[in-house]
Specification:
Layout lengths: L15 H18 L4 H9 L25 E3 L8 E3 L4 E2 L3 E2 L1 H7 L8 H15 L5 E5 L5 H7 L4 E5 L3 H13 L6 E4 L2 E2 L4 E8 L10 H5 L7 E9 L1 H4 L6 E6 L5 H6 L2 H4 L8 E5 L2 H6 L4 H10 L4 E5 L2 E5 L2
Parallel strand pairs: 5-6, 5-11, 6-7, 8-10, 11-12
Antiparallel strand pairs: 1-2, 3-4, 9-10, 12-14, 13-14
Helix pairs in contact: 4-5
InterPro entries: FkbM_mtfrase, SAM-dependent_MTase, SAM-dependent_MTases_sf
Pfam families: Methyltransf_21 (PF05050)
Keywords: Membrane, Transmembrane, Transmembrane helix
């Protein structure tokens, strides 16, 4: 999924005063968390309105160690704005993340394309009287999850990278959406068990099951192999759960995710979820699949209407 922004012009190195300002901002964010009692945090995590039994336990943000430093801000130019927290800060102090520079200039974070897309699709569904869950597979730091939750939709988010899970927990608290967002520390796939996952240090959004896929864009970054839990969506989603939309951004592992959701995707057209998935041929090839293989699989399940939007494919049943 393309989370790319245009580079700000005339970007300069961080001066000492700028670094101090950044440190102060981080301290303010961290300090603010301690003004809320642990009981209020516990209540926000245990009183979920989703009321669904899952075969694996959801990730417990209350027991998760606090991420630090926290660099968070509101997103610009969205009908339903939200706050999210950065996991990758860039190379400090020489080359910080461009959103850090925006923050120091008093600007909001730049709008991720996927956030706007999710809200546009869900808004159309709401107008048509539809309601149900949004599945965010490869949630990263929650830019799609919070876009949906800001609209009041319930979200099931899947993210295997612990550092990203910490930032999702930040966002759940900042946006007050614990009653809407349930997170799983797992990689959705076509089999149940454990798989090797490759984290890319400094570019966690490019982490992948495929080692080749993880390093395609950032060959100089350090890669760390870890074991993560995998689960098919069909084992997690009951037949009675209404699923409106599934977004999949898993760096080439999309076909495996879709195969693990065959029952879900086989629902009749009025109940089948709308799909948004990354269709990057290089990444798919690194995971021994292809866009044609995915399209043929989806067509066999009745997904006859697919269109390309940049590197993303949008598919639905007629």
């Amino acid at each position: 999924m393309a989370y790319a922004w245009k580079r700000d012009k005339n970007q300069k190195l961080l001066a000492t005063k700028t670094l101090i300002s950044l440190l102060v901002l981080s301290i303010i964010f961290l300090s603010s968390l301690f003004f809320f009692t642990s009981s209020s945090l516990q209540n926000s995590n245990t009183n979920l309105s989703i009321n669904t039994q899952f075969p694996i336990p959801p990730f417990d943000c209350f027991k998760c160690p606090q991420s630090k430093p926290i660099i968070a801000n509101v997103v610009e130019n969205l009908k339903y704005p939200f706050v999210y927290s950065l996991a990758d800060l860039g190379n400090l102090p020489e080359k910080p993340h461009k959103n850090i520079m925006r923050l120091l200039k008093g600007k909001p974070f730049r709008k991720p394309d996927i956030s706007a897309t999710i809200q546009e699709v869900l808004e159309k569904m709401r107008i048509n009287g539809k309601d149900g869950f949004f599945l965010d597979v490869g949630a990263n730091v929650g830019m799609a999850s919070f876009a949906a939750a800001a609209m009041g939709f319930k979200v099931l988010a899947f993210e295997p990278v612990f550092e990203n899970l910490q930032r999702i927990c930040d966002g759940i608290w900042f946006n007050r959406v614990a009653s809407l967002v349930t997170v799983f520390e797992a990689a959705a796939s076509d089999r149940n068990g454990d798989i090797t996952f490759h984290k890319l240090v400094g570019r966690l959004d490019n982490s992948a099951v495929s080692e080749v896929g993880a390093r395609l864009a950032f060959k100089s970054n350090k890669e760390i192999a870890v074991q993560v839990k995998s689960i098919p969506l069909d084992e997690l989603i009951s037949p009675s759960q209404a699923i409106l939309l599934i977004k999949i951004d898993v760096q080439g592992w999309e076909y495996h995710v879709l195969k693990g959701a065959k029952k879900l995707l086989s629902r009749k057209p009025a109940e089948a979820p709308y799909l948004i998935y990354e269709e990057d041929e290089r990444l798919l090839k690194a995971s021994n699949s292809s866009s044609k293989e995915i399209r043929d699989f989806l067509k066999s399940l009745g997904y006859s209407k697919c269109s390309q939007h940049g590197t993303d494919a949008h598919c639905s049943k007629e």
